[in-house]
Amino acid sequence: MKAFKELTEISGSRQNSYVSAWKDQGKKVVGYVCSYMPEEILHAADILPYRINGKGVSDMSQADAYLSRVNCSFSRCCLELGFRGEYDFLDGAVWINGCDHIRRCYDNWKAKRPFPFMHMLPVPHKIFPEGRQWYKEEVISFKEAVEAYFGVKITDDKIAEACSVYNETRKLLRKLYDKRTEDEPGFTGPEINTILSASVSMPKPEFNHLLEQVLQETQTVKEGSKKSIRLLVAGSIMDDQGFIENIEEMGAVVVADAFCLGAKNFWDLMDENGNVFENLIDRYYTHSPCPRMAGEYPTRLNFIKEQIERANVEGVILEHIKFCDLHGTDNALLKKDLEKAGIATLELERQYGPLADSGRIRTRVQAFLERIKA
Amino acid sequence: MIVAGCDVGSLSAEAVIMENGTIIGSEIIRVRPKAEQSAKDVMDKLLTRLNFSYNDIRFTVATGYGRENISFADDNVSEISCHGKGAHFLVPSIKTVVDVGGQDCKAIRVSSNGALEDFVMNDKCAAGTGRSLELNAESLGVDVSELGPLSLEATDTITITNQCSIFTEMEIMHLLMEDKSVVNIAAGINEAMARRVKMLVGKVGVKKDIGITGGVSKNIGVVKYLENMLETDFVEFPEDPQIIGALGAALFAEEKTKQAT
In Å, what is the CA distance from A285 to each residue of A129, A133, A139, A160, A171? Predict the structure, then answer.
């Protein structure tokens, strides 16, 4: 369990030991917020991409003075940490226009406590040929901005190298998810969350190495997991072990997900043959889509259905962070269509951050599990 | 065989004791700050009245907000399943149960054998709960129990537009300053409450027969508005609808005893 313990430590601290070691070598760290950010570009520039999170914030008073109460708590928590200086170890940050909440987070962060390097990488809200061209141009200007600011040259060879490292990560994470599909899942939901959190806050080659070890270590199968109800959880950004733990404590085991920090982030591999830059654009532009992508609802529904089948799921919990209109509306459609397909589904509204209302969640989850057992 | 159900909610606690499938007694109290104390007080009261002791009870199921913290209970079941179960026991034709309690509001769909089929619960907000009715009654200067009868006398219901309980309070204060009639405001409060509940019921679908449980089911004003909006009458329960959660818990206790033997 040594490798897992190390991943736990990494996921539990913001400027973890790998980030510090990286910086000690005089190398740069750049934050980002969304799965549409082609991390390989940064990796190819020998810059560490670090996914910004809002973990551990229970007081958002500084962020609330700038954002409004109708902004989602994820963007408020991230901004709060930014204002407090907890992300000062970053040398820069890249934002995506994922949704309006996270854009306002960017605006305020930039206005009040800007990083030396700040870049907005817009992604079209629809998948179509001209959109792909647009996205490609945006990735090129992002690449050029990185090259200009950090004084590096990002060659296609470097990108190709990065892609192969990242594909390795994706393949390993799929192996990890294979273990969840077993009758007695090799990992609990919170353990998966821990591994995923670490995966986006440390160098990928080292992460791959640790994950390989974790996959080889003997897993202690959670007692009674065979009797637990197998759930898929999907919805707004999820890096909260406590939330998943709360669900599992009611007699369930989370065996699959459709999160942008989970399966959706790594499911699609990148084609390593042919023009690597074009392939990178295709991979990120068309990867398992966020509800921000209009017209892609059927893809999202099918993705969930595939995961359900794969992991032998008995029920689905669709969560959304309060005021997350994208996931909130998508969840309403998904609930209708999944129920129609005979899959018991529960919608939950939550607040991002330390679980203040666990009782409320527990009641709904307990009733939902009773419904499945009935 | 004697079993018990104990429902500790956010505002009231109820206990029901059954013997061989028949209710032999029930009790309702206002909650204490701690769930365990509320549960003990309501059970003690009922046991004393029936001349029973805890040892006479074969199995106890706890439900409600405080269900996980009750030491004398043998098991716990969510209040959602319990309300469905209890309502179905009293009215076997029931398909939809609307439960409006102190701090939450739920619409529950039950199958023809009383099993939970689906449910919707209010999100993180007090609007549409018993607590918000209490606050509104307070702003109006009447007891919450008077809101229902008052609204029956209304001549011109005043529409309350705010959904948030706190903003509603301010709206009521403003209406009182404008010298609007207390009776018409009371009707407005009940109507606003009914609109909120209707939205939730709409989510699971209006399927007859429908019954209303929980403390708010005692407010005749809310009930009448809701019946109009849903275009159906609620079924009559042969017992106090406020004890249905505890009754459901007692029924689960009975099932669990049978399973064990």
Answer: 11, 10, 10, 18, 19
Counting the structural domains of chain B, the total is: 2
Compute the nearest-CA separation of B159 from chain A (Å): 25
Residue B105's pLDDT band (cuts 50, 70, 90): confident
Residues of B in contact with A357 (CB under 8 A): 124
Query: Residue A62 — very low, low, confident or very high, per pLDDT cuts 50/70/90?
Result: very high
Cβ-Cβ contacts under 8 Å, B255 against chain A: none
Q: Do B255 and B178 share a structural domain?
A: no
Residues of B in contact with A362 (CB under 8 A): 68
B229 shares its domain with B252: no
For residue range B195-209, list pLDDT tens digits in order: 889 988 998 888 999
Q: Which residues of A touch B124 (CB under 8 A)?
A: 322, 349, 351, 357, 360
Complex ipTM: 0.83
Q: Are residues B144 and B258 in the same domain?
A: no
- How far apart, in Å, are the Cα atoms of A281 and each of A40, A106, B91? 11, 23, 61
Three-state SS at B78: coil
Q: Helix H segments across chain B?
A: 35-50, 79-90, 130-140, 147-152, 165-177, 182-204, 220-230, 244-260
The 3-state DSSP class for residue B249 equals: helix
Contact A367 B111 (CB under 8 A): no
Instruction: Tell me what pLDDT residue A218 has.
Output: 64
Please name each of the domains of chain A with its CATH number: 25-150 (3.40.50.11890), 158-181+223-373 (3.40.50.11900)
Under 8 Å CB pairs connecting chains A and B tally to: 40
For residue range A149-164, list pLDDT tens digits in order. Answer: 999 999 999 999 999 9
| Together in a domain, B175 and B87 | no
What confidence tens digit (pLDDT) does each residue in A87-96 have? 999 999 999 9
State pTM to two decimals.
Answer: 0.90
Q: What is the CATH classification number for the domain harbouring B171?
A: 3.30.420.40
**b/e code A296-317 from CB counts within 10 Å (16+ = b):** bbeebbebbbebbebbebbbbb
Say if the Cβ atoms of B119 and A339 lie within 8 Å. no
Q: Which of B65, B77, B118 faces A359 most closely, judged by CB atoms?
A: B65
